[in-house]
Amino acid sequence: MKQSLEAPVLTRRTLLGAGLTLGAFAACPALAELRIEITGVGANQLPIAIRPFQGTSGAPADIAKIIGDDLLRSGAFRLVEVGGENPQENLTAPEGLADAAQKGASIYVIGSVTPLGGKRWDVRCIVYDTVTGQAVDSVGYTPSEEHIRMAAHRCADRVYTRLTGEGPMFASQLAYVAQLGARRYELIVSDSDGEMPQKALVSNEPIISPVWSPDGRKLAYVSFENKKPIVYLHDLARGVRTPVAAFKGNNSAPAFSPDGTKLAVALSRDGLTQIYLINSDGTGLRRFTRSYGIDTEPTFTRDGQWIYFTSDRGGTPQIYRQRVAGGGAERVTFGSNYAISPAVNHDGTKLAYISRIESKFRVAVMDLATGQDLLVTTTERDESPSFAPNGRFLVYATEENGRGVLGTCSADARLSTRLTGEGNIREPAWGPILQDAAVNQQ
To answer: What phi and psi values does residue 199 have, to the nearest 5 degrees?
Structure first.
């Protein structure tokens, strides 16, 4: 019974070879950008026209295309074609506005991208209502060349939040593990659309359970390079990492506290796997759960008051929660006889987890106020759900034709996409909205 709790996890955690490489970030020729296929559509899509920005032909990225692709993936928008770049268009009184309206667009987005020197760029984005002819939003950024795509994602977030009322999600990153061959594992960090993949770590041993720090600057993860699972904290910009939990037995399943000062980890140092709290520098270890079962996969709520986790203390794996300040554990899931891998959205209203139904592992989302569950995927071997920063979408791992791929889906099950690349792709984690000084807002 204890083995059954960890079996879905251990199937991808087999020890293989030895070897390790890491750096601040490395180019990623072995793993192409993730390819995105949209397999569903959103309801009440808003028709939007996005003209190629002035200066696009000389810029390192097509800002309008990035914005359009982001909005299309959200399922909330339908793109209306309005032709190519028009360097002569007046951004304050655009003549293309009438054409966009005639073609059925409710929103018209234009802008410019201009070199500033010193490998910096000025990116301007203006959003017009085609009915009133008035600008409803405008924003400018001065990113470095390497961050110009992130400026485009921020523009997309401005459009998305302004027109849907939802929080931002595009100016963020994904972390995931790609297995290439029998003895090569790569911890990859990419933009939220799968573009710009960079290797944070390469190893001949499995890498599992990456999780983002609240500021998006660090990852915690588990590496088997020393022939046992050890939890590491990895500063991505500096390429420096330190072991945080390397106790006897298994060290696994890290989760950051909302302020980033602590980690919850699952340790077997005292026998059965239980959850402990530890400072992010590896000091101050204290035991958090006490049961005669296996307690693992902790995750904090955003307000820091609760930790949700997986436990088989009742006989079968289920999701429980316990106050960080102390007290007993409460069972949360009742609609499934097998529930693992909890993830809580930003405002603490929804719980995503993996539910086993008739030997099929699928992502379910629970409304924590009502206890109602909704299956949001149609695949059968799902793992590791992780919410987008606004809680509107999830990324998860699954299998397609016997190969690991990533999927995203909306929390209401109306839209899904598939992200495929080279090798077997597992262990996704969706990071927070980035607040980078290299992308200055004007």
So the answer is: -85, 125
Spatial separation of the C-alpha atoms in residues 21 and 24, rounded to whole Å: 11
| Length of the chain in terms of residues written | 442
pLDDT 10s per residue in the chain (442 long)? 333 454 333 333 232 223 445 555 544 443 445 555 655 555 578 999 999 999 999 999 999 999 999 999 999 999 999 988 888 888 999 999 999 999 999 999 999 999 999 999 999 999 999 999 999 999 999 999 999 999 999 999 999 999 999 999 999 999 999 999 888 999 999 999 999 999 999 999 999 999 999 999 999 999 999 989 999 999 999 999 999 999 999 999 999 999 999 999 999 999 999 999 999 999 999 999 999 999 999 999 999 999 999 999 999 999 999 999 989 999 999 999 999 999 999 999 999 999 999 999 999 999 999 999 999 999 999 999 999 999 999 999 999 888 999 999 999 998 888 887 778 999 999 999 998 655 667 6
Q: Annotate 428-439 with b (16+ C-beta within 10 A) or e (fewer).
A: bbbbbbbeeebb
Query: Are 123 and 155 spatial neighbours (Cβ–Cβ below 8 Å)?
Result: yes
